Amino acid sequence: IKFDIPSDNAAVHNARLTKEFFQENNITLLDHPAYSPDLNPIENIWGWMAKEVYKNRHQFQIVEALCEAIFNTWSNVPTSLLETLASSMPKRLFEVINKNGGATHY
């Protein structure tokens, strides 16, 4: 089986053991810049979470309340959002390639 995994130069992806694992398992890494928000759907999740945590312009008076809201929001990320982001990856890759690494609408 061959998988294409983005290589974003993160330390975990550049570790010797990680590289060996990828090579031994015939996993091809795709080159892309270290900071590639268009290819990093977690950025969309962070945006969704911020909207949820601060919806209705909610302000937190104590750090503990903010932490609780963040953890509760993280625990309730909709499966549909995760599925949508995962299924958008081929289109994201295609658009980044077509724009020669330039910004996309993602």
Automatic annotation (TrEMBL):
Recorded superkingdom: Eukaryota
Taxonomic lineage: Eukaryota, Metazoa, Chordata, Craniata, Vertebrata
InterPro entries listed in its UniProt record: RNaseH_sf, Tc1-like_DDE_dom
A Pfam family: DDE_3
Residue ranges constituting the Tc1-like transposase DDE domain according to the UniProt record: 8-66
Cross-referenced Gene3D superfamilies: Ribonuclease H-like superfamily/Ribonuclease H
Protein name: Tc1-like transposase DDE domain-containing protein
GO terms assigned for molecular function: nucleic acid binding
Organism this protein belongs to: Kryptolebias marmoratus
